Amino acid sequence: MRRGRLTHLALVAAVLVTAGALVRSAEAASPQAMASWVAPRLNAYWSFVLAQDGLTYRNPPYYYWYNRHGYGWLRTPRACDIYRKRDGLIWAGFSREYAPNSFYCSANDNFYFDWQLWKRLRRGGAVLVAGHEWGHHVQHLLGWPERERVTRRLYANYELMADCYAGTFVRHERELGELSAAEAGDALRLLESFGDVERIPWSQARSHGSRAARRRWFMRGYATGDPKVCAKLFGRT
Q1: How buried is 99 (Cβ within 10 angstroms: 0-12 exposed, 13-18 middle, 19+ buried)?
Q2: Element (H or E) spanning 110, and its range?
Q3: In the chain, where the domains are located
Q4: pTM of the model
Q5: Which helix or strand (DSSP H or E) is residue 64 part of?
Q6: Rounded to 5 degrees, what angle do the CA atoms 68, 119, 109 make?
Q7: Residue 200: what pLDDT?
Q8: Could you say which of 59, 98, 102, 179 has the lowest number of CB atoms within 10 Å?
Q9: How many CB atoms lie under 10 A from the CB of residue 213?
């Protein structure tokens, strides 16, 4: 991406009316305040990026919280159901069965955020988690990454591409002064903690890539600030 594009994109994002003042103290921010701050920034960022290639960006309709005390059942497409019987109903209330997670559902274009995970996230970590999941939304809009993920069994490549996208967004927020160097470092450390500990073949659907691979592709996006470099994971230039 050319420097002029980044400068223009910075100006576009800078005029957003956000809840930034509410989340300057990352530890004190609620998950809802953090998500409300980062979601419009991600939408503005990707709307501009895709427009440069003549593509139309579509805002995701909604994000839901789960693993939160006081919540009940949440209906979701079966393809995205992660709870027990996988019958199209997710228990959105607190459950010790849930491993720390958040996910994007391409069947309805919605996000599902783990409240207990987000409670523990600092600012950089929240930007990383949201940036990765928004990356999957962009992959869905593009179409070809989802298709090649299945037809070529490039499951880890698909996840690493979302890591790379997250890296470009973190770089963008750093340049705007919304994230400090320490917060960007928090994002990278959190990402590494989610790397595959065991050696899972990249052709297996549950593979996300090793810690080293996740670090490498996040940094590729962060160093360049150019989402196009992320397509190299699928052999595209």
Answers
A1: exposed
A2: strand 110-114
A3: 3-59+122-234
A4: 0.85
A5: strand 63-66
A6: 65
A7: 66
A8: 59
A9: 20
